[in-house]
Amino acid sequence: MSVPDYDLGEVKASAKRHDIEYRGRNVQRDISNLGYELSDVAQCLMQLSENEFSKSIRYENHPTDDEYMCKFTKAGNEESEPDDLYIKFRLIDSCQVIDPARTLHHYPGPGWSRYASAWASFKT
């Protein structure tokens, strides 16, 4: 069984401080497609739990990414269905960078209607 490469407490602390940067042009578009702002992204990251961890992806020439699959309901939308999100992030030089892609497409697994693929590097 895989274990996260990054300490979830550090990830949450960084998200709480809003120490988040987006990587790539598609990032802001995809976050906007979900109707999220930086505070929503931070809240989503702060709500991650260990049981939502999926796997770590190790690369030969790049830092590891941790993947989580979670459900998130934006504040003020409590009556709506939660968004099913796929989140991929990394902690690099104390910087959290989110890079969602294709947020409104079907997740390749049962029960996942939309997803956000994210790379993140968290400021610690």
Notes on the protein architecture:
This protein has 124 residues and is α+β, with helices and mostly antiparallel strands. The chain has one domain: YaeB-like fold (2-Layer Sandwich). The protein is 22% helix and 23% strand. The protein has three helices and six strands; from the N terminus they run αβααβββββ. It has helices spanning 8-16, 25-33, 38-46, and strands spanning 20-22, 53-57, 65-72, 83-89, 91-92, 95-98. A three-stranded mixed β-sheet has the order 1-6-5. β5 (91-92) and β6 form a beta hairpin. α1 (8-16) runs antiparallel to α3. It is globular, with a radius of gyration of 13 Å. 34% of the residues are buried. The model is unreliable at 99-124 (pLDDT under 50).
Helix content bin: 10-25%
Number of helices, where a helix is a run of at least 4 consecutive DSSP H or I residues: 3
Uncertain runs are: 99-124
Per CATH, what is the topology?
YaeB-like fold
The overall average pLDDT, rounded, is: 75
Q: How would a crystallographer describe the biggest sheet?
A: 3 strands, mixed
Total beta-strand segments: 6
Name the shape in a single word. Answer: globular
Query: In whole angstroms, how far apart are the ends?
Result: 27 Å
Question: Mind telling me the CATH class?
Answer: Alpha Beta
Helix/strand order? HEHHEEEEE
Beta content: 15-25%
Based on CA atoms alone, the radius of gyration comes out at 13 Å
How many distinct folded domains?
1
Key traits:
124 residues; alpha+beta; YaeB-like fold; three-stranded mixed β-sheet; three-stranded antiparallel β-sheet; globular
